[in-house]
């Protein structure tokens, strides 16, 4: 009997072990990762500049003005030149396509952003930008003295939702399960930001303006730039974890940087720098398109037409008797071109400009690396709570969540869509994060993206994950940068700087302002009559 | 086995093995039932963390009660063990089907949910101590060790099988029945393994009946799902299909045919004439010559039927999102009889497209436009009630044309009703609201919209419901439905979906 029982035990044990083992094998045999490319800002072209080995120019061309760099600043400069009737310029762009971090991609399902994906309703002071939006038909007219925006380009409801305690809720600030301290801190923070939004400095200018150049020079406000936002919050005992998580989300969202490394001025600007100039119900909204800000970049680029010379690595800037000579390497032809011009707008990130122009010192500039993944899914995500929004954030994820590329589509959404998923690598020093970003294999990044999305939506059917790596996605507004290091960047005539790095906030409005400002300064120097937009 | 007679020891060997196997099966099945209940609760109620946590907690607690109660069992452990096992087979096996079918029928679903979980937990909790007692004549140390080992190994098997094999392969209802069968099968095997003289005939018969019952349930799982659906509609389902866009369900009870889209009633054949006459007659009666008519939505062809009653109509364009919907109402004889073949009329052009996208690109002018969309229950439909949409439709209306918009109930959701008029006026329409009583809907509202002031009088051919005499009464609004100040419905605020949702949740609760 003993033997029999042992036999029964053994048999059963073996059976159970086999069953468990089989199950475990099934569990650990991971489903294959979705297909999709790994791309990003062209590393070999960027790094080639660092090595500096280019052939001597074998071709020459002549234009009135050169714009080096075709991100939003360069495109805005070109757009302002064209708008003022100055057509004799060429824009040299390193990549095959202009647009910088506002570029977009497209697949069979939808266009999608590769980086910047929205533009808040501009403030009153952003006159040049509003002018451009008018010309683009995005501002359709005025009513009661306020610009009227095309409703199709305003972000449709539902705008934002947060996965909080297992349920999607509207808005990005948690509303349930809060402690007394959470509520008190959220209210106190809100009050501080409301006060700062309305604050006017001793020179009569707003304490926080967008573009930042219109901000007050009042030292009482600018002093905020010297401390970190985290320190500012600590000093006010605003330590609620819920508030701090929200602040961290915001700082990583706009600056790719932790609150400990963002200046308090820049941190507050996120909330206090927005006074959308429009009817009250539109003022807080944003403009967005399936391809994100690639839509705006595309409109600007089409205005510039064949004046954009893509695939050109600018590798030398030399002052000459009549102006400036720009040497660029034409990637397609494998030769260097010398472009003679009376002046040049340098619209590249400052760390690139610093390699070309000795008077620019970019040692204070640090850049946040980002991973953006465009994930094609068979069905729109769902989840308990409020329905799918444009911007969907999980309170338990390190990522910033995802935006839905087809959100603005007025048609019934029954089928596939593209989710643009964002991750700033903000939790380590930028250089280390960049190394990690490059060394971690594509499959590992895909696994991170997939698992993050499946944690929010276990039912999600992922078809493709297109990864995009941004080594230098955006300037970091570290303490002392915005009102310390940034304004000190200058060049001698006939060189003009244009980039959001000059503000320290990587925002469309900043890039646009610096582009237009540089274009107008260049036209003044060149003696081209124009009406100032700024 | 609880047999003291040493000579019979050899005979109890097989039942001892079988008992240990049943410990394994009981543990596996118990956990599967628990996982099923959690999954169904998450599926039906949402918030999986809460559901899993509370179901597992309730189950383990009930096991404790069962274990504690086992002390009151003085004798007949084996018989009780077998009976318990059979009871678990019945309750657990049917639990998934039962929960699905009960959900639409009962108000307090959680009572049923936790009732089932507690019952299974109680019975499983009762079994383990019984088993140990049945095996008490063996070495106690070894018995406890074996029973608990099999119990825990069974739990592992269940937790791996459930997500990896059962859910994807069998689905919830079948999984329930399959494990009920396993439960009952083990009980039967145990009964048959008993020494001859100790057979329990009644239990054997019960086990066979239960097995047959569960096997039948397993085979009829799909039909059970249908019955569940039928129960939730309250009438026999004669057609159910999920298209790319929606779930179409047709029910028939006696002479009443009803269409549901995503569970919302679209019409009842008994009184739809009231709705469709009220929708169509006032608008066509206010156009001098309604030669060309545009219908947005209305894929059932019933509004089109009313439109074709007007001899002036030459061309009708119907834009409906769902090709399956228009094909169903064009090709099914009973439905084509209901809409009098309006969808295959030579004057009819059916376009399957999203109305918003179509309207943005459409050209031409229509003398009358009939907007008959589902209620603004979600953001996707809500877009079809926005100022941006009406601005597009406005382009398509002839200068002296007239439009009507299905506008939800002015009684249940007055804010929603008046939001539609307010939104139409925001894009330059003149409006006049009216309402009609449709028994299956309740008090229902419509909004006339035109580029000029809406005429008070209409040229009306008498219908069953709308006549020249009855029509003027529809335009009077008593105070409980009176106009009120509301927000314009825009793409960026979806004010209508929000007020509509608030009003109907209030009404239904």
Concise synopsis of the structure shown:
The complex is a heterodimer of chains A (534) and B (509). By secondary structure, chain A is α/β, with parallel strands linked by helices. Chain A is built from 16 helices and 23 strands.
Question: Can you put this structure into words, describing what you see?
Answer:
By secondary structure, chain A is α/β, with parallel strands linked by helices. Chain A has a domain at 43-104 and 291-363 and 479-526: FAD/NAD(P)-binding domain, CATH 3.50.50. In chain A, 34% of the residues lie in helices and 23% in strands. Chain A has 16 helices and 23 strands. Chain A has helices at 2-28, 43-51, 72-83, 127-135, 180-198, 219-222, 229-235, 241-255, 264-272, 280-283, 294-304, 350-356, 430-439, 442-456, 481-485, 508-526; strands at 38-40, 57-62, 65-68, 89-93, 104-106, 111-113, 118-120, 139-143, 146-149, 160-164, 167-170, 286-288, 308-310, 312-320, 323-330, 335-341, 343-346, 367-377, 391-394, 402-404, 417-424, 462-475, 495-497. In chain A, the strands form six sheets. In chain A, strands 1-22-18-21-20-19-10-11 form an eight-stranded mixed β-sheet. A five-stranded parallel β-sheet of chain A has the order 13-4-3-17-23, covered by helices on one side. Chain A has a four-stranded mixed β-sheet with strand order 2-16-15-14. In chain A, a hairpin with a 2-residue loop joins strand 8 (139-143) and strand 9 (146-149). In chain A, helix 3 crosses helix 11. Chain A is globular. The termini of chain A are far apart. With 509 residues, chain B is of the alpha/beta class. Chain B has three domains: 6-231, MFS general substrate transporter like domains (Growth Hormone, Chain: A, Up-down Bundle); 233-264, no CATH class; 271-508, Rossmann fold (3-Layer(aba) Sandwich), CATH 3.40.50. In chain B, 55% of the residues lie in helices and 15% in strands. Chain B has 16 helices and eleven strands. In chain B, the strands form two sheets. In chain B, strands 7-6-5-8-9-11-10 form a seven-stranded mixed β-sheet, sandwiched between helices. A four-stranded antiparallel β-sheet of chain B has the order 1-2-3-4, with helices on one face. In chain B, helix 2 (48-69) crosses helix 4 (109-134), helix 3 (77-102) packs across helix 7 (221-233) and helix 15 (414-426) runs antiparallel to helix 16 (495-508). In chain B, 50% of the residues are buried. Residues 1-14 of chain B have low confidence and may be disordered. Chain A binds chain B through residues 1, 4-5, 7-9, 12-13, 16-17, 19-20, 22-24, 26-27, 151-152, 154-159, 166-167, 281-282, 285, 384-385, 387, 410-415, and chain B through 9-10, 13, 16-17, 20-21, 24, 46-50, 138, 146, 150, 153-154, 156-157, 160-161, 164-165, 244-245, 321, 354, 356-357, 360, 378-383, 386-389, 490-494, 497.
């Amino acid at each position: 009997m003993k033997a029999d029982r042992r036999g029964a035990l053994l048999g059963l044990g073996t059976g159970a072990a086999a069953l468990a083992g089989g199950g475990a094998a099934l569990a650990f045999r991971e489903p294959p990762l979705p297909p999709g490319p790994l791309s990003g800002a062209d590393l070999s072209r960027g790094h080639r500049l660092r090595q500096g080995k280019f052939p001597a120019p074998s071709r020459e061309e002549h234009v009135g003005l050169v714009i080096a760099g075709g991100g939003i600043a360069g495109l805005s400069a070109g757009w302002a030149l064209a708008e003022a009737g100055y057509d004799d310029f060429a824009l040299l762009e390193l990549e095959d396509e202009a647009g910088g971090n506002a570029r977009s991609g497209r697949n069979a399902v939808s266009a999608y952003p590769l980086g910047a994906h929205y533009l808040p309703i501009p403030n009153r002071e952003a006159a040049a930008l509003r002018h451009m939006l008018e010309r683009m038909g995005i501002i359709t007219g005025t009513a009661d003295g306020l610009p009227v925006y095309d409703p199709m380009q305003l972000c449709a409801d539902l705008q934002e939702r947060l996965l909080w305690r297992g349920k999607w809720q509207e808005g990005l600030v948690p509303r349930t399960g809060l402690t007394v301290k959470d509520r008190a801190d959220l209210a106190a923070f809100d009050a501080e930001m409301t006060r700062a939004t309305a604050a006017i400095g001793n020179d009569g200018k707003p304490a926080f303006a967008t573009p930042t150049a219109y901000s007050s020079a009042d030292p009482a406000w600018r002093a905020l730039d010297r401390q970190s936002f985290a320190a500012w919050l600590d000093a006010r005992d605003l330590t609620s974890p819920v508030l701090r998580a929200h602040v961290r989300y915001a700082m990583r969202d706009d600056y790719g940087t932790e609150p400990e490394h963002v200046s308090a001025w820049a941190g507050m600007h996120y909330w206090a720098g927005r006074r959308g100039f429009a009817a009250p119900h539109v003022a807080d909204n944003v403009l967005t398109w399936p391809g994100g800000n690639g839509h705006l970049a595309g409109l600007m680029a089409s205005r510039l037409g064949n004046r954009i010379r893509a695939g050109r690595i600018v590798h030398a800037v030399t002052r000459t008797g009549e102006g400036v000579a720009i040497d660029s390497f034409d990637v397609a032809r494998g030769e260097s071109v010398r472009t003679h011009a009376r002046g040049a707008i340098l619209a590249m990130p400052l760390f690139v400009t610093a390699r070309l122009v000795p008077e620019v010192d970019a040692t204070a500039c640090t850049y946040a690396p980002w991973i953006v993944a465009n994930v094609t899914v068979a069905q729109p995500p769902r989840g308990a709570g409020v329905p799918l929004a444009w911007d969907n954030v999980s309170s338990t994820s390190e990522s910033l969540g995802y935006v839905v590329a087809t959100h603005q589509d007025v048609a019934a959404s029954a089928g596939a869509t593209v989710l643009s998923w964002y991750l700033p690598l903000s939790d380590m020093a930028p250089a280390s994060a960049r190394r990690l970003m490059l060394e971690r294999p594509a499959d590992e990044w895909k696994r991170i993206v997939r698992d993050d999305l499946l944690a929010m939506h276990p039912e999600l059917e992922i078809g493709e994950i297109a990864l995009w790596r941004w080594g230098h996605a955006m300037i970091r507004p570290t303490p002392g940068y915005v009102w310390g290091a940034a304004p000190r960047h200058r060049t001698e005539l006939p060189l003009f700087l244009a980039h959001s790095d000059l503000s320290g906030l990587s925002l469309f409005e900043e890039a646009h302002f610096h582009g237009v400002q540089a274009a107008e300064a260049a036209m003044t120097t060149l003696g081209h009559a124009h009406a100032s937009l700024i | 086995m609880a047999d003291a007679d040493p000579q019979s020891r050899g005979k109890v060997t097989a039942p001892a093995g079988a008992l240990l196997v049943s410990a394994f099966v009981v543990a596996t099945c118990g956990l599967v039932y628990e996982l099923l209940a959690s999954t169904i609760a998450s599926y039906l109620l949402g918030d999986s963390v809460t559901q899993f946590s509370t179901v597992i907690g309730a189950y383990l607690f009930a096991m404790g009660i069962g274990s504690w109660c086992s002390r009151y069992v003085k004798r007949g452990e084996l018989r009780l063990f077998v009976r318990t096992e059979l009871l678990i087979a019945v309750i657990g096996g049917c639990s998934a089907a039962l929960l699905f079918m009960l959900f639409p029928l009962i108000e307090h679903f959680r009572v049923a949910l936790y009732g089932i979980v507690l019952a299974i937990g109680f019975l499983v909790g009762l079994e383990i101590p019984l088993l140990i007692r049945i095996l008490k004549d063996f070495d106690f140390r070894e018995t406890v060790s074996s029973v608990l080992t099999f119990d825990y190994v069974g739990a592992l098997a269940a937790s791996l099988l459930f997500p990896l094999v059962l859910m994807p392969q069998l689905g919830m209802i079948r999984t329930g029945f399959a494990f009920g069968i396993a439960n009952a099968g083990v009980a039967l095997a145990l009964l048959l393994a008993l020494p001859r003289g100790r057979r329990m005939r009644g239990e054997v018969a019960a086990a066979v009946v239960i097995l047959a019952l569960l096997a039948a349930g397993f085979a009829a799982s799909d039909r059970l799902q249908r019955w569940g659906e039928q129960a939730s509609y309250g009438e026999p389902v004669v057609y159910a299909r999920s298209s790319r866009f929606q779930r179409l369900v047709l029910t028939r009870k006696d002479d009443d045919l009803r269409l549901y889209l995503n569970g919302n009633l679209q019409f009842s054949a008994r009184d739809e004439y009231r709705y469709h006459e009220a929708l169509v007659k006032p608008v066509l009666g206010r156009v001098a010559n309604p030669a060309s008519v545009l219908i947005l939505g209305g894929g059932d062809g019933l509004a089109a039927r009313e439109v074709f009653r007007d001899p002036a109509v030459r061309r009708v364009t119907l834009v409906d999102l769902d090709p399956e919907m228009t094909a169903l109402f064009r090709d099914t004889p009973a439905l084509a009889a209901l809409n009098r073949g309006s969808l295959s009329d030579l004057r009819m052009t059916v376009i399957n497209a999203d109305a918003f996208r179509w309207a943005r690109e459409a050209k031409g002018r229509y003398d009358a436009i009939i907007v008959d969309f589902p209620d603004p229950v979600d953001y996707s439909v809500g877009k079809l009630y926005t100022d941006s949409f009406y601005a597009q439709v406005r382009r398509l209306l002839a200068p002296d044309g007239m439009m009507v918009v299905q506008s939800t109930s002015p009684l249940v959701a007055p804010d929603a009703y008046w939001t539609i008029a307010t939104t139409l006026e925001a894009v330059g329409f003149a409006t006049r609201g009216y309402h009609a009583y449709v028994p299956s809907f309740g008090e229902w509202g419509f909004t006339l919209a035109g580029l000029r002031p809406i005429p008070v009088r209409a040229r009306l051919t008498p219908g069953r419901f709308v006549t020249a005499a009855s029509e003027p009464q529809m335009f009077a609004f008593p105070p409980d439905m009176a106009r009120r100040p509301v927000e314009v419905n825009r793409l960026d605020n979806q004010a209508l979906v929000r007020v509509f949702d608030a009003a109907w949740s209030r009404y239904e609760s």
